[in-house]
Amino acid sequence: MHLLILGYSSIVRRRVVPAARTLERVTRISIASHTRGASDMPDGVGWYGDYQEALASSGADVVYVSGTNATHGRWVSEALTQGLHTIVDKPAFLDVHSAERLVALAQSVGKGLAEATVFAFHPQFTLLRSLLTASERESTRATAILSIPPLPADNFRYRVDAGGG
Fold first, then answer.
1. Which end of the chain has fewer CB atoms surrounding its CB within 10 Å, N or C?
2. E strands, the chain, in order
3. What's the pLDDT score for residue 144?
4. What pLDDT does 158 receive?
5. pLDDT computed for residue 121 by the predictor
6. Strand 2-6, strand 28-32: pairing
């Protein structure tokens, strides 16, 4: 399976590409990025400088959309319209109307649409699993509170126009 990733975000670099490389079914990975060049890509990963070109010519089987929250809807729509199964970073969409419209589009073209959560690939979850597995107690539940340190002031997550705020 050929995975095309639209956007080379921090989460793509740190979690998505490493996780995809562990899956036997993923035989090829390409990334389209407006801000990074081919020399910035990990070894063995194809590169496109334009999202539209990548969707039209990559031959991908599935697309992972990772960009600012405000752009998710546009690129999910483009990927589904191209007939591609689509995964999108959370939050997938900014409002319920967009979510409903894009779920209906996915159904009409017979393609899958999923919102990604990559927390299960965080190193803390590996530690938590090992503690639960090694436990001799009969506990079947664990509670974890995870937080993110403050981001730089210019991070898009603070910008309403980028879907943050």
1. C
2. 2-6, 28-32, 46-48, 62-65, 85-88, 113-115
3. 67
4. 87
5. 67
6. parallel
Q: Which residues of the chain have pLDDT under 50?
A: none
Q: What is the pLDDT of residue 159?
A: 87
Q: How many residues are there in the chain? A: 165
Neighbours of 139 (CB within 10 A): 8
pLDDT at 129: 72
**How many Å is the Cα radius of gyration of the chain?**
17
β 28-32/46-48 pair status? parallel
Q: What are phi and psi of 158, to 5 degrees?
A: -95, -5
Q: How far is it, in rounded angstroms, from Cα 91 to Cα 72? A: 9
- Spatial CA neighbour of 113 closest among 130, 134, 97, 90: 90
**C-alpha distances in angstroms, 115 versus 19, 35, 89, 96, 141?**
16, 24, 6, 14, 25
**Cβ atoms within 10 Å of 78's Cβ, excluding its own:** 18
